[in-house]
Amino acid sequence: MALRMPKAEVPAELRETLIKQVGTMPEPVEVSFSNPKVALTTQEFTAGASKWDTVDAGLKTFAHMVVAAQVGCSWCLDVNYFLALHHGLDLAKASQVPVWRESEVFTPLERDVLEFAEAMTATPTAVTDELHARLLGQLGPAAMVELTVFIAWANMAGRVNTANGITSQGYSEACEIPLVRRPGQAGAAATA
Predict the structure, then answer these.
(1) What is the spatial distance between Cα 109 and Cα 115, in angstroms, rounded to a whole number?
(2) Total number of domains constituting the chain
(3) CB neighbourhood size of 146 (10 A)
(4) CB-based contacts of 14, cutoff 8 Å, min separation 6
């Protein structure tokens, strides 16, 4: 897939900050600055969401990776695997997210979160009352709201990236354990 949108100039201070954080300029940010109002609003939301702390960061990272695998956003899968490394998450577990249903490494809570992320990503959404109630009982109302909005944001980000032709930038190449391929998928989305 080729990039479908031109990259635009990103303010120098933001560019420096992002390069310091992830080592290279993220293409989704460059593309979004074709409309600075949208770009800045997206950056503000993303910065605010990164401060949410009611739900474990690992659960949110794994949920985002499931969304990315489901919608085919190799960029999201790639960068989240890289972030898992830098946030001290279990990379052996993170590597299994694309095939979580077949993997034995996830706890019951993690499996429920991954199932919830998949169900929210389905079109139409496929969240059941039972799954929602199970998660609500485990996490509580504040965390359930956070997780739900976070997964919705992950869907937006992944779908925007795939629609704009944004693919993996190789962030996950710094990780020691490669991502497992999803059955039936080829290319960057399957491996990051």
Answers:
(1) 10
(2) 2
(3) 18
(4) 29, 43
